[in-house]
Automatic annotation (TrEMBL), chain A:
The organism's place on the tree of life at top rank: Bacteria
Keyword Transmembrane helix: yes
Keywords recorded for this protein, A-Z: Membrane, Transmembrane, Transmembrane helix
TM region positions: 32-55, 61-85, 106-126, 132-152
Protein name: Uncharacterized protein
From TrEMBL, chain B:
Ranges in coiled-coil conformation: none
Keywords per UniProt: DNA-binding
PROSITE patterns: HTH_CROC1
Domain HTH cro/C1-type, chain residue ranges per copy: 16-70
Cell cycle keyword on record: no
UniProt-recorded name of the protein: Helix-turn-helix transcriptional regulator
Lineage per the UniProt record: Bacteria, Bacillati, Actinomycetota, Actinomycetes, Geodermatophilales
Organism in which the protein naturally occurs: Blastococcus saxobsidens
SMART domains: HTH_XRE
CDD domains noted in UniProt: HTH_XRE
GO molecular function, one term: DNA binding
InterPro entries the UniProt entry points to: Cro/C1-type_HTH (IPR001387), Lambda_DNA-bd_dom_sf (IPR010982)
Pfam assignment, any one: HTH_3
Length: 167, 88
């Protein structure tokens, strides 16, 4: 019986040598910073919209652009950490599983806090403005950020990968 | 599962890089033989990851050596020093 991790299609994609540039520490950190900036911008836009015009066309356009921008940013972030949060455990070796567990544990409390803030923030926004749509948007953003905390932690803290495997 | 050492005192020292060079084995070949990713072998060699007992035993079996000849809690002396010490 083989002891090697299963080489699923997803695992092969994340391990593809063509994406080695994405795994360098500066690229990983820039991807994290860009994603955090995007989320902050969307949260601020939601709050401004709630405080001024209410649900509007410009907010819908900003939200759509932000969500579309999230797709390539998250792909880059996933490539930079070999997709360890999106792959099955059997496609990873013990070190990759350890990295994943370490980040989950490190952000457990902040993620809990962000999830609570998502619920409390959404309820408060609706109570203050009667804007159910904006309340849902705020809650969704913070809930999504809570889920992404582990990705951000690993991409920010993972050590540089050793040089060429064929050496 | 292994873990990342929290301090220098917690680190597991090893001779994998020397043994690989001696046997002409690449990280990728060793990784395939012991069932891990090639990067993991690199992390173990750099002391940034302490392997599980099962992985340490598989590496020892691959090189045909006792596990304590490859891994140690104390810094390992170089092989040349060991040879000099054993030469009468």
């Amino acid at each position: 019986m083989s002891i090697s991790p299963d080489q699923t299609y997803l695992a092969r994609t994340f391990d593809d040598g063509r994406y080695a540039w994405a795994r360098r520490r500066p690229v990983r950190r820039r991807a994290v910073a860009a994603q955090i900036a995007l989320f902050l911008a969307l949260v601020v836009a939601t709050l401004i919209c709630a405080a001024t015009t209410g649900w509007s066309t410009w907010f819908f356009l900003v939200w759509t652009a932000g969500m579309l921008g999230f797709i390539p940013l998250h792909s880059l972030l996933n490539l930079s950490i070999r997709g360890v949060f999106d792959r099955s455990s059997r496609s990873m070796d013990e070190h990759q599983q350890e990295l994943r567990e370490r980040s989950y544990v490190a952000v457990a409390w902040p993620a809990w806090g962000l999830n609570f803030t998502a619920f409390a923030g959404a309820v408060t926004l609706v109570a203050l403005t009667d804007e159910i749509g904006l309340g849902l948007c705020l809650g969704f953003l913070l809930w999504m950020a809570a889920g992404l905390l582990a990705y951000w932690h690993l991409a920010w803290t993972a050590p540089d990968e050793p040089a060429d495997a064929d050496l | 599962m292994g873990r990342q050492p929290k301090s220098d005192a917690d680190r597991v020292h090893d001779r994998i890089a020397v043994l690989r060079a001696d046997r002409g084995v690449s990280r990728r070949e060793l990784a395939e033989a012991v069932g891990v990713h090639p990067q993991t072998i690199g992390y173990v060699e750099r002391g940034e990851y302490s392997p599980s007992l099962a992985l340490a035993l598989r590496i020892a079996r691959f090189f045909g050596l006792p596990v304590e000849a490859i891994f140690s809690l104390d810094p390992l002396p170089s092989l040349s020093q060991e040879l000099l010490r054993r030469t009468p």
